[in-house]
Amino acid sequence: MSGVGFSLRKNGGESLEPKFNLLFEPWIPVLENGRVVEVGIREALLEAPRFLRLETPSPLEEAALHRLLLAVLHRALKGPRRPEDVLDWWQEGHFPEKPITDYLDRYQDRFFLFHPKTPFLQVADLPEEKPLPWSKLLPERSSGNNPTLFDHTTEESVPKATYPQSARALLVHQTFALGGLLRRHGVASAKDAPVARSALFLPTGGNLLETLLLNLVPYDPAAEAAEEDAPIWEIPPLRLGDLEGGKAKWPLSGRTRVYTWPSRGVRLLDEGDGVRLMGYGPGVEPLGSPYRDPMVAQRLDAKGNLLALRLSTERSFWRDFTAMLPRQGGKVAATVEQADHLQGELEDEGLEGRATLRVLGQVSDQAKVLDLRREVYPLPPGLLSAGAEGNLEKALKAAEELGQGLQRLALQVARAVLGERQREELGTFARSLPLERLYWHALDGAFPGFLARVGEKAALELWQEALKRAAREAWGATRLFLGTEARHLKALAEGERALGSLLKAVAEEVKA
After folding, report:
1. In 3D, which of 298, 299, 456 has the Cα closest to residue 383?
2. Same domain, residue pair 165 and 148
3. Beta strands at 249-251 and 285-287: parallel, antiparallel or unpaired
4. Is the pLDDT of residue 289 over 50?
5. Residue 293 counted as domain residue
6. How many whole angstroms separate alpha carbon 227 and alpha carbon 220?
7. Residues 340/203, Cβ–Cβ less than 8 Å
8. Same-domain pairing of 251 and 160
9. What is the dihedral angle through the alpha carbons of 475, 478, 479, 484, rounded to the nearest 10 degrees?
10. Which DSSP letter does residue 313 get?
11. Which of 302, 310, 315, 417 maximizes the CB count within 10 A of its CB?
């Protein structure tokens, strides 16, 4: 089946016939035989072994699309109830076809992007008055950094989105919308989407089937039913009357409900060959609960509270890797635990199953998106073993202590060059030196190799050498950065001695 070829419209935007069914129409980008093609939900699941991976330049799209596919699988397969179910599907090399096709047939009408009563992840009766450009759905463009883009006097210049583009943007927005001023339909400000500010942990395998299985954390429909779990297509469609005035509030619980959360009221306005504008309004506000998203890791703060790990503009995620480990009171993402367990089971069965970890998300400041991030790391078997955790803890502690030592060294050099000045002036000069920046840049490249071997006896020795090499190279660049006057040469001589002491301390730290 394919979507209806065209639709009539009335009142400027309402489709009289359903159009563009996301189960069948091509809209999910996948990598097949070295080229990117688009497929529908049904093909992505039933032909998952055929595709290497979902392929999109946007880390937010990658996360949101996987969460959608996982929600469908959980409900269609009513599980997996046990880790053994995942291992069985891995060995079979495909998902069970009949429960998936039966499930998708049952809810087929709820997956039309345009529908007079039940448009996917939208609100059918949302008014068209005061529409916004569809690009408001893109987090990097909806944060106030591009104010002229949303000036309604320039709406005609907004590029039209294709149906696949608008479908992906809709899904991303519902997953990652940041809270902020709204002032629509009786709601002054909107709340964050459930994972708007969290780092999401997505283990990936050798093809799309393996990736989905690595993230298919055991799911008990009976237990989830007690939390009123259901994806958005299994419940009655939301209407404006449900949302206006901020009336819609749901407990933040239930896996497939959270995976398909309607963070905003949206109504894409079809122009026959694409989307330029949309109705926009409040969505469902999440109510606080102890629910833990399977893709989210947690760390312990100074007050003993567990908080979701976030990405930072100032540092790569690997520097916070140990914060989520039990040794420091944190909680690893359930998807990482699942991947670690599954790799162990595959090894026991003599099967290949090496995984990679992708850390995805956005860095934000209040309602502004500062950066979109995708960081990729090895995910070796036994990562969560006591030995590997201990090695990680020692390695990252040594890296941070050497980094702090280099920070002090930069201030020492600044003082030797400038003399006694105001602390702010000395700090500015110290930060202008390449010492710290190049040190951490070098370790960004070295850490994946260490992580791949983190459970081995030689791992810490290799890391120690990486730390020394990074510090020496950064110091070499700093030498070239400074001049050749007497005060510069004196600063360098003092710095050499201090660097030697730092490197000696690193060797002792790693051996301890």
Report:
1. 456
2. yes
3. parallel
4. yes
5. no
6. 11
7. no
8. yes
9. -160
10. S
11. 417
